[in-house]
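quick one before i forget lol
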Amino acid sequence: MIVTVAAAAGAAAGAWLVAPFVSMARRGTIDDRARAAARAEADREDALRRARRREALVIAAGAADLPAIPAQRSPVREALLVC
């Protein structure tokens, strides 16, 4: 009976000591998670900056006086120019 209680207490103490190491192995340390969050935030900022630039380019292209696609030449007009 005493051996069983001692074994159970030893197993509980071992699990209590090992739990933080298992957690760090699975999720990383607090510093690792903080660095990953900072990298993700920087990536989001870069993505937003690129999206805003693309949006500005699209607006500028729409506001330009020149058409984005050149007009097609008429075959009749070309035939008249050749003659």
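fyi The two ends are 115 Å apart (CA to CA).
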